[in-house]
Amino acid sequence: MHIKSQRIIIALIFILALMSLACKRQIKSTADLPPVLSHTYTVSVAPFTQPKTPYELILGRIPEPQGLITDEDLRILDDQFKQILKRKQTRNFKFLTIPPKKPTTTYHSAAQPKGLEHWLAYGQSQGADLLLVPQVINWHEREGSAAGVTKSAWVRVEFFLLKINSGTMMNRSFYEEEQEPLTDNFLKIGQFIQRKGSWVSATDLAREGMIKACKDLGL
Could you give the number of structural domains in the chain? Predict the structure, then answer.
């Protein structure tokens, strides 16, 4: 009887997984389609940064307390994003290696973001037409291993596509995920299977955000 129950549970998991994937593929309206970005544009890609003041933040607010990412992990994200974007063979990308200078102000608070002009000036200094700005807003690494954790990974990454000559933000993508046990949220069975039933790292979650951003921004 116990073996029969296990087989029923496994069958239900796979059925729900197939349903979840089918829902993801279904486009309900034209509003769900990614925007069309002309391939005549070269997209300049800024290095990953983590805003810590409103003068670096384009939208939203800095979480309190903010989980901080190391410089080493920022460079790992740069490499991952570069590999993903290089697969887009019909799109020209220019990968910028010089990070923007920190704003000279010493203002620190949870005030409204003021970073758009800062990033537009950076894009102009780099000769960019379109500038893609990837930012890590919140970063919490898993505590444990792929087999088991005492605390799961949790990240929030955001991506902004700026048009430099008009001084505007063309589009935005954001991704926030804190990995949960399957028993806590059975609706995420699709993600559970994609992650091979293991506890992923913060960089793994950020990579999922990069893939989502490519779709959201029409890259």
Answer: 1
Q: What is the pLDDT of residues 177-199, one digit of tens each?
A: 877 654 544 445 556 556 555 77
User: What does the DSSP 8-state code read for residue 126?
Assistant: T
Cβ of 179: how many Cβ atoms within 10 Å? 23
Report DSSP letters for 142-192, one per residue: -EE-SS-EEE--EEEEEEEEEETTTTEEEEEEEEEEE---TTT-GGGHHHH
The verdict on residue 14 lying in a domain is no
**131 occurs within a structural domain:** yes
Residues whose CB is less than 8 angstroms from the CB of residue 177 and which lie 6 or more positions away in sequence, other chains included: 154, 155, 205, 208, 209
Amino acid at 169: M
11 occurs within a structural domain: no
Q: Mean of the pLDDT values across residues 198-207?
A: 89
What CATH number corresponds to the domain at position 185?
3.40.50
Alpha helices in the chain (DSSP H): 2-25, 71-86, 116-125, 189-194, 202-216
**Residue whose C-alpha is closest to residue 134's, from 184, 192, 95:** 95
pTM score:
0.77
Q: Which domain holds residue 185?
A: 37-216
Residue 106 lies in a domain: yes
